[in-house]
Amino acid sequence: MADETATTPENTVSAQGQTVSPDNAGDSAQTAPAAPSSTPKPGASTQKAHVPSPAALARKTPQVAAPVQQSTYSQDDVDAAKTFGRVDDQGNVFVNENGNERIVGQFPNAQGTEALDLYAHRYLDLKAKFDLFETRLKSSEIKAHEIDESLKSLKEDVKEPPVVGDIAALQSALESLQHQAAEKKQALAAARKEAMAKAIAERTVIVEKAENLAASLSEGTNWRSTADKFRSLFDQWQQHQRSSVRIEKGEADALWKRFSSARTEFNQARRKWAQNRDAEQSKAKQLKEAIIKEAESIQGSTDWGTTSHEFNALMDRWKAAGRAGRNEDDALWTRFRAAADTFFNARQADRDEMSSNEKDNLVKKEALLVKAEALLPVKDEESAKQARQSLAKIQEEWDLIGYVPRDDVHRIESRLDKVDKQIKSVEDAAWKQSDPEADARKSSFEVQLTSQLADLTAQIEAESDPKKIKALEAEKAAKEQWLKVIK
What are the coiled-coil residue ranges (predicted)? Predict the structure, then answer.
């Protein structure tokens, strides 16, 4: 059995002309070939037929039952294919290819029509592969490597195919498909070039946005928001990789290097900012802890005015210290606020107590005002002396009473001052009347005026000019008025 050769996927022809199925190739049992079940896809290989030896052809072939052929092809197509073949008496099937006959297989113990039907169907199957590939070439989804693989498979299929049909037409169709495939590959290459240019432009936009973000970094940068923007751009980059045409490695690497550099620049700047922020927050924490220590040291003070100013100064220092981080700030502020509340609550309690006392003091001082105002009016020097003595006692008692509510201070002080001023006005008038120096000054001025009036009288009598007389008389009248006042 050394010279046994395979003829088709369905059966094997031995050197003696025996047909052996793949399932029982080791024994001498004979089976009929199976009918094709479906149309093959482009690129699928077909097993090549081999011409049997004369001894095999001369060997008597066992009788086998012919298969029942189930076809999806029209009978006209099958009959047309069968015109290119024949079957001899031994069941050998031949095909006429370019004017030459070639044996394509053997179908013993079957009618010639049945044998030709099988190989005609195989031809139509092969032709269907050509038709399918031609249709596939019109698709926008086909890839260049698929075109090459399909053409390679079809070339193999038309090299002495074990079929009965117009093989020359298939070879001619192959040439036509090769031209169509070349044009399709050119179109695909142009489309890919255009798509790649578009993809590069789209990805460049993403890169430029990242570079603009990196170039805009400053002290006022919102780092969280900018990080979100970089994250969004990276997501866009990944989505673009998945959804767009694959960019050539050189271009893709160059764009990624730019994008990565921009993101690295941002990360380094944010890291530096974070380090500076941590240092500032650490310093702020130290300053605030020192402020808290001072606040806790004075929280028990009862020197309300001075300590209030000290707490106000500590608050200004607190604001100037900066932030120590949200969690740290909240804890530190709680401690500082507790110390301040201790002092200010104590001060408020003292004020509440003082307010109650001040209201009592107001009632007492208003009662004294009634006594003081009862001293008026004062008409002469003697009643002024008595009123002054009584007012002095009232004022002593007034000072011992203490503070009154702030809103009432001006009102009651004004009333007491009014009493004092009226008594003082009478005292001043009495003093002026009994002042020796004032009397001496008054007498001297009277003598001067009397002398001046006498001179003016003499000048008027001696003057003849009416205008001058009128002026001297006006001066004399004014001095006479002064003399009346001081007498």
Answer: 137-194
Mention every residue, 6+ apart, whose C-beta is less than 8 A from residue 384: 378, 423, 426, 427, 430
Question: Is the CA virtual torsion 375, 379, 383, 385 positive or negative?
Answer: positive
In whole angstroms, give the CA distance from residue 148 to residue 188: 13
C-alpha torsion angle, residues 400, 403, 409, 414 (rounded to 10): 10
pLDDT digits (tens, 9 = 90+) for 116-140: 889 999 999 999 999 999 999 988 8
What is the rounded end-to-end Cα distance, in angstroms, of the chain?
178
- DSSP letter assigned to residue 64: -
3-state secondary structure of 28: coil
Q: Give the integer Cα–Cα distance in Å for 3 and 7.
A: 13
pLDDT recorded at residue 72: 82
In angstroms, the Cα distances linking 263 to 207, 234, 235, 249 are 10, 9, 13, 20
Which among 31-35, 164-168, 353-357, 403-407 has the top mean pLDDT?
164-168
- Cα distances (Å, whole numbers) of residue 127 to 131, 226, 398: 6, 62, 131
Give yes or no for residue 245 having a pLDDT over 80: yes
DSSP for 277-338, written as a single string: HHHHHHHHHHHHHHHHHHHHHHTT---HHHHHHHHHHHHHHHHHT----HHHHHHHHHHHHH
User: Using CA atoms, how far apart are residues 45 and 122, in angstroms rounded to an integer?
Assistant: 13
Q: Where are the domains of the chain?
A: 5-165, 191-354, 374-433, 436-486
DSSP of 91-150, one letter per residue? Answer: -EEEEEETTEEEEEEE-TTS-HHHHHHHHHHHHHHHHHHHHHHHHHHT-SS--HHHHHHH
Q: Full-prediction pTM beyond 0.90?
A: no
Locus of tokens 């002024």: 384
Any idea what the Cα angle at residue 98 is, between residues 97 and 99, rounded to 5°?
A: 90
Q: For residue 380, give both structure tokens.
A: 């002469």
Q: What is the DSSP letter of 158?
A: T
CA dist., res. 324 & res. 326, Å (int): 7
Beta strands 12-13 and 5-6: pairing type?
antiparallel
Q: Which residue has the higher pLDDT, 226 or 351?
A: 226
CB 15 within 8 A of CB 55: yes
Instruction: Give the C-alpha separation, 190 to 310, whole Å.
Output: 81
Whats the size of the chain, residue-wise? 487
Tokens of 158: 């038309």
DSSP type of residue 6: E
